[in-house]
Amino acid sequence: MTRTTISCGAGWCRRADDGAAHAANAAGRTAAVRPHPRAASRSGRAAARRPRTLRRRLFAPAARRTRDGADRPARAGGVLRRRRGSAQRARRLRVYHTDLRPRGRVRRDVGGDGRADGTVFVASRCLVGAEFRARLSRDLARLFHDLERGINLVAMVNPYLPLPAFRRRDRARARMAELIMRIIAERRSGAAGGEDFLEVLMRARYADGRALSDDEIVGLLISTIFAGQHTSTVMGAWTGILLLEHPHRLSGILEELASEVGDGEITLDALRRLAALERCIKEAERMHPPLVMLMRRIVRDFEYDGWRLPAGDLAMVSPATAHRLPQVFADPDRYDPDRFGPERQEDRRVKHALIGFGGGHHRCIGATFAQQQIKVIWTVLLREFELSLATTGHRPDYATFVVGPRRPCIVRYRRRRSPLTATAPPLAGARRQS
């Protein structure tokens, strides 16, 4: 279904004149494909919202029990977005990197069930604290895997169906909620503390002075951890695969790491200097966006370019199609990270050209954090291991809502005999490419 949607969208764009639009309506779904990414942002902030049914089921089941009956976490978006950002400051990066290093090991199959371990543990440690990771060290990746498998296109229609995947999803959510509630109780009693997103939420207040309830904190934490690892996992996997498929790019990245980081501490300033790696991450986002469809529930009628979009419909846009528009990205099927360099900046030709993390008011607030995660992970892996692919022909796996590489996707690895240094840029990883 997902692959068909992308193919249809690409076909529409190829046949359309500039400025033409195509729309289809079926069972309350309105899909629009236009050879111009700006079309996704013209509805205005009040015209469309994220679908609530699945979100409430997984992340904020208590939102309907607030005093005025409103969905408080959504209405308090500005305050909570600022609070979340404060938990991702530079002073916490040292904790994040220290926590990642002991797990700097490579999975043989980066497209397998264990591919999310690194991002799951980093996100949970940074956002909930050391207690959460320590108590779920063996089960955390499995719980998030069960949660992920229960979020698909069927769940967007009816997340309450009695399906085995949905039952496992709900059990995983209940287990994580139970542990977070226990940690909240310990912190309120003064038995423990921390400098993380959980602590930020416990101190946060709405505009009327009301504190967040424990249920609201749990929902926000689970959604943030999930967002912090879900797309990061896929983006990180595609970033590495594409680099290993293009040895000359890998060689340049290794030289950049040797020059800017070497075997020293990974700091925020060092990450900001990794411009070539950042371009590779953006190109992975463009070629293989984690979400091939972005959806919003239309809450009031509005018109765009002669099309009337009625309230109640589900508006959809496809990053996988928009990112392959030749009007925006030159030779869009070619891997070319330099398109994001200062000389070309193809992603700035039009507004919202790169929408792997969404755009407008609902753009993912953790996009920068995700990029830092991916930079840290690949910095650690590439400077400690020589890597090469043992498989070829890697294709997207459309079996899940977040599209990662199809298995098998096997990586050979060997620990480096000497660390990366600026005086001797290591090219061994590229030479081992098969």
Description:
- There is one protein chain.
- The protein is built from 18 helices and eleven strands.
- The protein folds into two domains: 1-34 and 295-321, no CATH class; 48-291 and 323-431, Cytochrome P450 (Cytochrome p450, Orthogonal Bundle), CATH 1.10.630.
- The strands form four sheets. A five-stranded mixed sheet has the order 1-2-7-4-3. A two-stranded antiparallel sheet has the order 5-6. A two-stranded antiparallel sheet has the order 8-11.
- It is of the alpha+beta class and 434 residues long.
- It has helices spanning 2-15, 53-58, 72-75, 77-86, 93-100, 117-127, 130-135, 140-149, 153-157, 164-188, 197-203, 214-245, 247-260, 268-272, 275-287, 319-322, 367-384, 428-431, and strands at residues 22-26, 29-33, 48-49, 294-298, 302-304, 307-309, 314-317, 385-389, 396-397, 404-405, 411-415.
- Helices cover 45% and strands 9% of the residues.
What is the highest CATH level, the class of the largest domain? Answer: Mainly Alpha
Strand order of the largest sheet: 1-2-7-4-3
Average pLDDT metric:
75
Major sheet details: 5 strands, mixed
Provide the descriptors you would attach to this structure in a database record.
about 425 residues; Cytochrome p450; 5-stranded mixed beta sheet; two-stranded antiparallel sheet; 18 helices; about 45% helix
Task: Describe the secondary structure blueprint for this structure.
Layout: H1 2-15, E1 22-26, E2 29-33, E3 48-49, H2 53-58, H3 72-75, H4 77-86, H5 93-100, H6 117-127, H7 130-135, H8 140-149, H9 153-157, H10 164-188, H11 197-203, H12 214-245, H13 247-260, H14 268-272, H15 275-287, E4 294-298, E5 302-304, E6 307-309, E7 314-317, H16 319-322, H17 367-384, E8 385-389, E9 396-397, E10 404-405, E11 411-415, H18 428-431
Parallel strand pairs: 2-7
Antiparallel strand pairs: 1-2, 3-4, 4-7, 5-6, 8-11, 9-10
